[in-house]
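Below: protein 1.
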Amino acid sequence: MKRALLIAMVSAIASASLQAEPVWPGREWARAAPEDRGMSPQRLDEAAAYAQRFGGGSGCVVRGGYLVKEWGDPTALADIKSCTKGAVGTTVLGLAVDAGLLKLDDLATSHYPQMGREREDNIATGWLGEIRLRHLATMTAGFDDGRPPKLVYRPGTKGIYSNDTANMLAELLTLKFDEDLSPVFKRRVMDVIGATPDEWKWRDNQYRPKQIDGHKTREFASGITITHRALARIGYLYLRNGQWDGHRVLSEAFVREATTPTDLPGPFPYYAFYWGSDRRGYYTHMPKDTFWALGLGDSFVVVCPSLDIVAVRLGTGSTKSQLPGGNDDWGARVEGFFRIVVDAVQDAPREGAVAPYPPSPVIRSIEWAPAETIVRRAKGSDNWPMTWGDDDALYAAYGDGSGFAERGEKLSLGLARITGGPSEFVGENLRSPSAEQRGDGPRGRKASGMLMVDGTLYLLARNAGNAQVAWSTDRGARWRWADWKFAESFGCPTFLNFGRNYEGARDDFVYVYSHDAGSAYEAADRMVLARVRKDRVRERDAFDYFVRVDHDGSAVWTKDVAKRGAVFSHPGKCYRSAVTYDLALKRYLWCQILPGKDPRFEGGFGVYDAPEPWGPWTTVYSTEHWDVGPGETGSFPTKWMSPDGRTVHLVSSGNDCLSVRKATLRVSDAAR
């Protein structure tokens, strides 16, 4: 446990070196002493020795764009075997997807009608027409590892590691590009990233037909020989989310999807698009954003965005150079090497943070006002979700207290109206018999989200088995409750808040977030998201549920709540939260409280940002132990944001009060 905590802390680096503008290699990689890049030269020596001890040839470690460690012959080309799949095959697939030549959920036979028809028994299954490109990219098409492969499972029902599954995808892409893939890869990728022809080769096809429609075919299963420096360039392309010194090679959305474990039943729990990925925290000795492409003999490239590291280890292309860790657990063998690289990182972690996502590219840091400047009102009342009303007031809800009435009735759910600025606001209780609830803790309904849209005030109540919607058309005086509930998940739902009366909203939808649990008192592994048209919030059947991000960065939705996917993952750490939109910075700010004994008085939280309501999320701030209690909930009300979006105020239930703390967002040069 301590080891896992240390890895999470190290992965939350906030040093200026990691936040600076990217360094791009020219003909050669720029070099730096390990100490100058926050790394231990002794531990890097140990990593190199470990890589070579088991038959490895050469390799390198790059941090922040600088070559900080190298071993072996930098001009030697190694046969990287199945590392070809992720480093090359996935990249070519991304080129096609981003060019609009195909979509990941297209039926494969719509682009390659003869695929899999070498065997009559494949045709007899009737399943060939059900295979989608996504199945081919995740080894879930149902083919075994024979040559030619046999279709043994219905597509999407089971994962089998199948080399010819990858090779058939290569043939399909040859048809779509109408060209031999080797010159496509050279022209569109390797020339752009500065890998010269003498640094890599793609051999002729050995196991499949050598031509298709008059074009030479290549394999994705294997076939690339390459130097470690050139392979590091491919890793660096992925580290920089698909762009290279101003040139967009792959879309950021595709890179993220390709390196996130599939929700399909892949051959390994960490399997993405031919890449391995630790995003679900499968390995305790690597940061969770680590991903890798690996081949026989343990030739691999490892990418870790949170540490700004690319590492390459080249083997011999046979089991003679295989690292310890077992034959079946490929990721464990990568972990055995990369844990030494992680241990070499010496930068101070951010506030003892346990950050599940890499640092924000827009907001470099948060500067909190001194603790003694925190404004505290309504002592003894917690919760405090709030929204900006059409009359310029903030409408809020409190719990287990009497709100702004010092000797008033204690309520499980009470309402309040707040006017004025963050330092000198005036609050008054808003009495409403149709909204107010009684009962301490989980025994009484409590507000977890509030929102005003077009003059209608909405409230989400937790502790309602699971949650319930209420609304008021007279600014909170009288309320009606929906005759249905969120009965699966959404145990502590909250609204995404935009500006005054929902001004500045991205579209005509209302968005609802929650941790993926039925109770507000249980932590979860992930966050979930729903949406509903703003004029249909009262209707259960009008809600859509987030599934995943598509290759173009858009969200995929479903009407079936059972098919919901994770919009944010942080195993065991997802709890109560609130989301607001910083219009000036064009970033969604998600404040998430970490589960703990009583975060009103002690504990941690994280602030995450994204360009869309569904991500991709990055870390602005993360700590397990703030200097004061962060409260059971926290948010940045949009009314109290400065015009430039850089001064915000955290409203929380810290110290069992309505607590307001000023903060300054330090943004990157690119965001100015």
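Below: protein 2.
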Amino acid sequence: MQPKILIADDDQKARAPLGAILEAEGFAVDTADDGQKALDMLSAGTYGLVLADLKMPKVDGIALLQAMRERQIPTEFVMITGEGNTEVAIQAIREGAADYLEKPLTADRLSKLKAQIPKLLQQFTVQQKNRELETKLEGLTSYGELVGQSEGMRAVYEMIERVAPSTASVLILGESGTGKELVANALHRKSERAKGPFFALNCAALPKEILENELFGHEKGAFTGSTNEKPGAFEMASGGTIFLDEVAEMSPDIQVKLLRALETRMVRRLGGKKEIAVDFRIVAATNKDLQKAIADNELREDLYYRLAVVELDLPPLRERGGDVQLLALEFLRRFAKANGKKLEGFDDTALEWINSYQWPGNVRELRNAIEKAVIMARGSRVTLEDLTSRRHRASTEYASVVSVPVGATLAEARRQLVLKTLAATSGDIDKTAKTTGMTVQEVRGELQALLERRSRDGQEAGGGEDEEPAPARSDASAAPAAAAAPAAAEAQPVALPPDVTSPVGKAPAKPAAARSRKAG
């Protein structure tokens, strides 16, 4: 439905004829005889365009425009002025008016206005849809099968909303495990082809001959053992979407056939002579550096341009901030339900590890880790022991820098270093001491001080428990108990001067006074 037009003019002899002319052109028109009434109508309803006279009682044209901008009313604005008021008209454009129109409204001026109105209404409609989309996506934690509310993922959701209704080919770029097929499926479900098939093929998983057969099909007798004809993916996806994952792994001769299918929308089965018309939309994906792949002749440049009408970048999990915890909780819910387990969540140590680990395998690695943790969990909460494997414990995929707030004491910086290094070593006190250059007794002392402070804080808050914290142990089996402390550390680092930031494992230097006392 086309947005309405509001004419604001106190002159009935000008207002009524202009309204009649625009209605005769098929536009829906409302009128107001002063600026205040026009402002009230704009605030209460949705108008795509307002044509406002400069001189009106109560609120004049300039004041009306300024009030609209203050109230964030997005309606397009055209100022109607008397001849010779060009300075005021220019001021109106500076205030945000789309244009101005001089009185008297001659045939030429009316013709110009009638030609301009559809463009202004279209501009309003596009901007309105964008605003509705931004409102819809703001705070969204999931989008179809995709989960996340980081800025990077909201940009992905917005791109899907914009691109899905079109027929353009889309190339999804992202590391392995980021969810490229889920994005392709979301594009299909949001498109006009949603009722058609969604056919996915992994080009890296199939040998050349099998991939060619899967894509184009074959006729009976095309090769030894082909006793029946078989339609290929392009035929089976006709009316829907075909998703080609790892498309850069496709052999060059198949790339040539794919390029021809994209250009002609015709395919020929292996061993066949007949051209078959197909109606498909193609979405492709790769985790390769495309410029390098093109330079190395792994991907044809002309095919790239056909596939990448729209490029969509999917961020790695390490760049998605709070999405890691959001995804972990969602996977926990799913797998707990699938395995018939009642789990309340993660304990503090496990959650600290989930947030500090870099997840090089992205969402796929996180999903597998949570599924394993749910299966292994014995209590009401998932622990670090349930969550991590030997490979994880040996991994160096942790933040390599510890940052503390400016103004923090040396004791606080030292405690942060111990906690983060302890988290990176999965609670191994001996390894933490060796890595930081401290003694085991010093590490235990830091942990004991932290636990005592937490206990004291809990008692002061009226929520302390009677049980005392278990003493730290130096053997590897002490990991869950000893590593409970890192949860108290600041999860979000802040920027520091260079002399306040220390790499994980490197203890900050002691003050000169402290060194001299020890030496004495």
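DSSP finds 22 helices and 20 strands in the chain.
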